[in-house]
Amino acid sequence: MKLKQISQAVSLSLLMAAGAHAQVSDGMVKIGVLTDLSGLYSDVAGPGAVIATKMAIDDFMAAEKPTFKIEMVSADHQNKGDIAANKAREWFEKDKVDVATELVTTSVGLAVQKIAKEKNRLALISGAASTAITNESCNDVTVHWTYDTYAVANGTAKAVTQGGGKKWFFLTADYAFGHALEKDAAAVVKVNGGEVLGAVRHPFPGSDFSSFLLKAQSSGAQIIGLANAGGDTINSIKQAAEFGIMPKQSLAGLLMFITDVHSLGLKNTQNMYLTEGFYWDLNDETRAWSKRFFAQHKRMPTMIQAGQYSSTMHYLKAVKAINSDDTAKVMAQMKKTPVNDFFAKNGKIRDDGRMVHDMYLLQVKKPAESKTPWDYYNVKATIPAAEAFQPLSASSLPADQEVIFRHRCSRGHA
Description:
Elements: H1 2-22, E1 28-35, H2 46-64, E2 69-76, H3 81-93, E3 99-102, H4 106-119, E4 122-125, E5 142-144, H5 149-162, E6 167-173, H6 176-191, E7 195-202, H7 210-218, E8 223-227, H8 231-242, E9 250-253, H9 258-264, H10 266-269, E10 273-276, H11 284-297, H12 303-322, H13 327-336, E11 348-349, E12 355-356, E13 359-364, E14 377-383, H14 385-388, H15 399-404
Parallel strand pairs: 1-2, 1-3, 3-4, 4-5, 6-7, 6-8, 8-9
Antiparallel strand pairs: 10-13, 11-12, 13-14
């Protein structure tokens, strides 16, 4: 009798395991990396984000030994929302992609999160910046992982204004991301006793910033806030140096990456403040992972690329924990599980999809201070997660979404 009971128990266990395994559709988890592989943001995301995703998959397979297979696909969205939306739709409908990831460029992130909701798939956004992703465009299938315009503005604009840079003029990329960054930074400037003298908006992407810089120069502002990113920021700073704008006026790069500093050199960027969610030289964990990344990419990771690894790993661990790739179940598991890795400690995915974690106020070193390659920053402050990101109570949602998602994306409802 005991042997029969044991046999029955083993059979039941095997059946349960088989049933659990079958919940991962086709025995396959498919991850789509939709990024800028050739354009303005290819250095900060691009091929490096693809490498980071592959690293996460390989590390997960080696450590967790899942029963399901994992496949990665990637595509270039060319920084165009319509191209990104079409590719995401194709991936979800025809190619059985479970999650679209990375999504640098705000127009891309906003477009893909809508398709993800329509097709009941996940969107993990690492590169796009606008707070609209977890505000007016909030939905229950999207996680905004790495940073946003509120967080980077809250760090840099606050430090510069409190340091005496009271009069600002903004040079802004003329699309949703630039507008959001200018708005968030201007609010921080004013709260900290500063004044905004004006703004000028340049085409995205831009190449000739001369007329815009001349307007900023003639404004009389102490600080020219660069509400742009990637190649636009690099070209803005190069041309500002050519026009002799510094040191009479100072530049504040409101969204800068380590690759920007590397391209421009310490001589052109020394003493600039910037805010990031990751720096390769923070501690032993960040250094160890970054050196592995460097071995493949030949440059140190940006916060987008580090965040891409982190979000991919967190997603895969959630799938394994519940033995399912069901969108709602995976999202629930991701939200209830703290994020503890080299990228974030005690990170948490809030009800609105914002992953909150510490951010870092950094200052670019003088050339003489840099002792080794990529030794570019002095860490001036750690900005706690609760201060770094927009409070959930301040989120803004359309009335219909506030009703539908009041337990996920609302103004602080439980």
